Amino acid sequence: MTLFARHHAHALADDTFRFRITFDSADEQKRCGKAVQPLVGKEDALLKALRAGEQRYVECKTELQAIQKLRRADTDLPARCAKMGEKLKEVVQVLSVLDDVSRQELDSMAHLHGSSVQEMSGHLEKLLSCLDAGSEELFSKRQKTAGRKRGVGKGGVQRVPLEEFAKELRNFLLKEGVPFTFEAATRDDRQPVDHVPVSAAARLLYRAARVLDRRVELSDIEAVIMAVNKKPEFREELLGDAMVDALTR
Fold first, then answer.
1. Alpha-carbon distance 158 to 209, whole Å?
2. What CA–CA distance (Å, rounded) separates 63 from 85?
3. Could you tell me which residues come within 8 angstroms of residue 152 by beta carbon, excluding any fewer than 6 positions away?
4. What is the pLDDT of residues 98-107, one digit of tens each?
5. What's the half-sphere exposure (Cβ side, CA atoms, 13 Å) at 176?
6. How far apart are CA 108 and CA 158, in angstroms?
């Protein structure tokens, strides 16, 4: 199920142009006929790019969640093993202090199931050995740093999936002759002071990304466009990527 419908493509195409801050608003610029709208009439192609980008965004986000879950399991394993080991030691202790009569009765019941007290004790010792090994530091600890994680925006937005989304839009825009650049302006004439996207690419990506996640801010778009222009290739493998590593720790 896609989030992008045909009306999104039409609205985004209509709004994709270089905003000139000599106008009070983008709508005023359009009304005055001063807006060059290169994507108007190309809504079908834009919608295709939006949906392709959305698919990459969802796949990337899903894989990131799986990596984070695995790494949390790595972190939690030693404590869980130690806890299970303590309980198992209690069982071993109880077995070791059984009187002869109780031990013989337990051995008889074990024989009915094709086992014995001696065999059970051996299995318990092996399991306890595995738990003891698991409770040790099997995974090297990484130093936690204060502040926001690299690759996460002020609002908590993960930028790596947005980069994969942006790469599809970048490819589309470049084919249409629209530079994939970031430019914004601060409107000091407004209260509160407003930050607005100026370049066509920034305007398109900002509004499209907010369909995926309403928390997206203009600072996220700036970081994403810079990252994508630096490395425009799609990620084929997330593990080993420095940004992904920083994001999922």
1. 12
2. 32
3. 158, 159, 247
4. 898 898 988 8
5. 24
6. 60
